[in-house]
From TrEMBL:
Name assigned to this protein: Fumarylacetoacetate hydrolase family protein
Entry's Gene Ontology molecular function annotations: acetylpyruvate hydrolase activity; metal ion binding
Keyword Ligase recorded: no
Family matches, as Pfam families: FAA_hydrolase
Amino acid sequence: MVEFTVTPPAPAYLDVVGTDEKFPVRRIYCIGKNYIAHVREMQQDERDPPVIFMKPKDALVRNGGEIPYPVFTNNFHYECELVVALKSGGYNISEADASSHIYGYAVGLDMTRRDHQVSVMEKGMPWEITKAFDHSAPVGPITPVSKIGVMTSGHVKLKVNGETKQDADISLLIWKIDEIIAKLSEQHKLMPGDIIMTGTPAGVGPVVTGDVLDCSVDGLEPMQVRIGEMAT
């Protein structure tokens, strides 16, 4: 039995639709700039490949949870997107084989400190300050691919206090899911338990304490989270 010098962190996991079993999360990969309309609203170059970054797995917030308004920002934004969960992986996965590694899908939020994003992009600095902070990765329950099949289309929708803010279709992804998996596996050995946030459509915007966010993707279990008081 391993003895630890301090209390180890709690395991990171997501719920799975239709079972009491949990999906253990190893890494959270994120894809930026993957819908043309969002690239345009952020005034970025449409010809650039999508940005790859990560969030820590202890940033997960499950369905029904609360996101404390984070420190070190005055412009806290939502980004709703489709999440892909992997059951297997490896290096240099081909696009033709990519879908065979998918365990299932969920809806997620890439929460962002928007006021810091512009400055770090201009200076070529790492994205952690704007993307990889506490409670920045809400993800809903996973629907296994065995129940829904391989997803190539479906509306991504986000409502803030009942008002629709984002509404697009995953068929509009610049880099499709198979391409994302293949490209990631060129740089990282993908493994069971990895999840991928595939990018957000246009309509991103700020939230404040008390706001309720309802996120959905056609055919998947919806997710609702609330913005809480300032983190302490």
